[in-house]
Amino acid sequence: MSTTSVPVRRALRPSGRHRPEDTRRHHRALLLQLLFRHGPASRADLARSSGLTRVTVSDVIAGLVAEELLTERKSGPADPVQGRVGKPPVLVQLAAEARQIVAVDLSADGVVSGALLNLSGDVQERRGQPLEGRRGDVAVALVHTIVGELVDAATRPVLGIGAATPGVVDAAGVVVDAPNLGWHGTPLAEGLRAAFDVPVFVANDANTAVLGEHTFGDAGDGGLMLVRVGTGVGSGLVLEGALLHGHRAAAGEVGHVVIDPDGAECACGRRGCLETVLAAPRLRERLAADGPDALAEVGVQVGIALAPVVGTLNLNELVLSGPLELLDGALLGAVDRTIRERTMPVSGEELVVRTSALGDDVVLRGAAVLVLAGQLGVS
Ligand SMILES: [Zn+2]
Question: How far is CA 219 from CA 261, 262, 336, 369, in A?
Answer without folding.
Answer: 35, 37, 17, 14
